[in-house]
Write a structure and sequence with these properties.
The structure is a homodimer of 234-residue chains.
Chain A lengths: L9 E2 L15 H4 L3 E5 L4 E3 L7 E7 L2 E6 L5 E7 L4 E3 L11 E4 L3 E7 H10 L1 H27 L2 H16 L7 E4 L4 H8 L3 H13 L3 E5 L2 E4 L2 H9 L3
Chain A binds a DNA duplex (30 and 30 nucleotides) through helix 6.
Chain lengths: 234, 234
DNA sequence: CGGGCATTTGATTTAGCTCAATCCCCGTGG
DNA sequence: CCACGGGGATTGAGCTAAATCAAATGCCCG
């Protein structure tokens, strides 16, 4: 347990919540976290700043994003509950990207000193972190390949399919998902414009593949057709 | 030293060469490598196969590539001398991508058992590997952001600039680089077509930014203009 | 000298962008 | 209860960057 002083957003008493780490190897760390919440739009890490923390997301969704000189930003990664962000070491260089809350977020912050001590005591933890990082690398490379060649339709369909897979535990024939992103955010993530994203959604709806009952909800009426649309030029 | 039996491409006697690892923390590993060479086009890892090895590139260039159902492939990463490939652990899942030699390659292969033993003995090594992997992740995310928004000209200019930076140690006003990739490979890397790559090169040449004396050689006549072209919509 | 390949160049098509208008959903206040 | 906004989403009408299709050129190597 870390006996840091609490602030409006940090409450040491909540650290037990941090025990919800999927990975058993990371259990030793779980007890050491400081609970913290972020409001939608709040950024935890800013590109260029030194990275002082390492954290694990409990609830909510964050984006890793790169804002280019022209001001438009690109989402180069999404962080879901269970994902780590920041770095466990102090010696790492400046942050390469911003990390911003897309929804209200609750996370478990680990001071780097704690992580470091913990890693020395539990070598399996470091390996687990390396394994996760390598998996993430493979995943980002997959995204890279999609951005390189896939059509707008395939990108949108792929995003819906992936979100449904991640969100909806049920594999019912007809499944309904609440997309966690606005059209604009989807555009930033998929390298498209808002209009194009919207058009492709309409197209999928017109083809009877999905239903759009309103808001950000999507009903997957034909999972196979959706998967096929996603594969198109993947 | 590993006393494995030698094969046409493996020669234990060459393992001393493997000492050329940039990172001091990885020195303990250096003595344990098995030297191996690959011909251009030979693939060391195939997507879907279990990954049995971990290696460090000594000389030459490799591509990490994803071949989609349609048969076109996308280069999702380049591996330069000093870079690691594969995974240090046996428990990792199937390879997410192919890894293929773009030139004749000489590398230093580390059997996973050896790496594992070595990592237990030298914890700093595991950290070094984690740091490298995180750096690579940041780099791939940078590429992702470029593919999402940059124009064809910016992609090509960026690639030339980056290659020059990596290759040519000299920062002379006029610098000359031998591009390690064919136009087709550049297209696969940048998410463009051969024709578009060629046109952008011609455009840069016409603008006096670069010279194309022949073959794969590029003379950088105006580094500032090249950098500016690369930033365009980065 | 000639064949095979990579590269360049040209002509045309098209997917997705831009600009612009409209719609829809909701919260707000009269 | 309904008018009024306002932000996100959708739809429409061109436009443009890059893809595609096709041909010509250059180059390496036997």
């Amino acid at each position: 347990m870390v006996f840091g002083k609490s602030c409006s957003n940090c409450d040491v008493r909540d650290s037990a919540l941090c025990g919800v780490l999927a990975d058993a190897a990371l259990a030793p760390l779980a007890a050491q976290g400081i609970h913290r919440t972020l409001a939608r739009g709040e950024s935890l890490i800013r590109a260029g700043d030194p990275i002082r923390l390492c954290a694990n997301i409990q609830r909510g969704l964050m984006k890793i994003c790169h804002t280019n000189p022209a001001g438009q930003d690109v989402i180069v990664g999404l962080l879901w509950p269970g994902d780590f962000l920041g770095t466990p070491f102090a010696e790492a260089g400046p942050a390469p990207h911003d990390v911003v809350a897309l929804t209200a977020v609750s996370l478990c912050v680990f001071p780097q000193a704690v992580v470091e001590r913990c890693m020395v005591a539990h070598p399996a933890m470091e390996r687990s972190l390396l394994t996760r990082t390598m998996a993430e690398l493979a995943q980002v490379r997959g995204a890279l390949s999609r951005l390189a060649r896939a059509t707008a339709l395939a990108r949108v369909a792929g995003f819906i399919a992936e979100t449904a897979h991640r969100r909806g535990g049920t594999d019912a024939a007809v499944q309904s998902v609440e997309l966690p992103l606005s059209r604009g955010e989807m555009a930033d993530l998929l390298g498209l414009t808002i209009e194009t994203v919207s058009r492709q959604m309409t197209r999928l709806k017109a083809a009877g593949v999905i239903g759009l009952p309103g808001g950000r909800r999507v009903v997957i009426q034909d999972p196979d057709a959706l998967a096929e649309a996603a594969e198109d030029a993947l």
